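Input set for joint prediction.
Command: fold jointly, output tokens.
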Amino acid sequence: MSECLLSLKNLSFGYEHHVIGKNINLDIEAGDFVAIVGSNGSGKSTLIRTILGLLPPLSGKVIFSNQLKPSQIGYLPQETRIDSNFPATVSEIVLSGTLGQLGFKPFYGKKECKRANAAMKTLSIEKIAKKSFSELSGGQKQKVLLARALAATSNLLILDEPSNNLDYDSRHDFYEALTLLNHSHGLTILMITHDLDADDLIGNKVLSLKDGTATIYNTTDYLQHYHPTHEILDHKEAH
Amino acid sequence: MFEIFSYSFMLRALIVGILVSLCAALIGISLVLRKHSMLGDGLSHTAFSAFAIATVFGWTPLWFALPITILISFFILRLGRNRKINGDAAIALLSASALAIGTFAISISKGVNIDLNSYLFGSIMSTSWGDVVGASVLTGIVILLYLFAFHRIFAITFDENFAKSIGIKTGIYDIIFAVICSAVVVLGMRLLGSLLISSLIIFPTLSAMSLAKTFKGATILSVIISVLAFIIGLIISFFIATPTGATVVLVNLAIFLITKLSFFREVW
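tokens >
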């Protein structure tokens, strides 16, 4: 059994007068690729905001393993929140991912630049490093934000509906990049997605949020149960 | 032409104006991109009201207006975060109420001679050596902040949630920005006018954004545009005796329109 990277212990989350999830207990193992599914309002985003420390838990705990510092999680928020005319280049954005490792230093050093360049190379966006964010296509923008998340972490990526505004091809391309990060770089990934489309369930596990409780399934079991007509692709079985 | 700065009031106006324009442009880029453009507007009306009340009661306007404006700035930033309140509408109400209170206070106090016109639109004669000292201190703080926290300010401006997730204390920066914005408004208000000072926070940023591709470039360019527009506006307002604030805003408007011409965008 692989090592546990992140555990939720009796976690209740939500906003002050509105409990969304109650007494949730679950473990995320290192190397997992978990799709978080649930209907609108089931608390997917609230759960990850609680894991990221953006929202205090109502009760219970989020426990990180020793190798994971909370400030070194790579987060990709929902794209709609970012101004599409923002004056910033790709490399400025990706570099900002390393700020969590900067400590009290005011400026980026060689180490940070190297990290950012490596992240851009992994996602094959080094050619657009000097381009302005506003000139990019939707798929490129998401890759830039993924590179920023990658620059922030060596362990865990948390993505909030990353494929929302992508067309079929860019979505495919983006998922391919995620699978690569999971397989070859050993990154653990939590990704919020819609479970309406089984093609989005690309990881090895599914975390389903329903009526305030969370259940973890193996993707193959989940598909057989909820999408019986879906042909299970080879790469999922091999996983 | 430079002999006009041999008048000491012109020299004071020049120094205070340049420093305030520089600070306004620096914080402007972050405020505008984070959709806090209305902060300056709400604050300038508050500052007007505080100045009027202080003058009526014979208190030192600067030391009364600054704390009040800072307090209101925290309030406005909180309004923006509250999902239950329509922040936009609340700021509009606040601005109008503050303006009404200020005007009311001035008109019921007989015997106090205040030139309302210069309060609202700015007057070249109004800056004191105290303002020069205040603006210098403020500029020192703002420049140090931008030198040492530039990358963090970028991260927060671009994507606050991500910045928080990697451990940047965004709340502290909110407070710092609110205090700086208050100081810019209070120090620049009498020179540039309480109805117009807030546009100095917005115009240079929008002009710079239509030209620059990088955040660094946009920040530096907005400072250059802001200071240049002030100097041009000040000189014009001296020679044709127009309110300083209105003249500077018109120069800013002209620059903004020029930057919007696609020809200039290509060249840059």
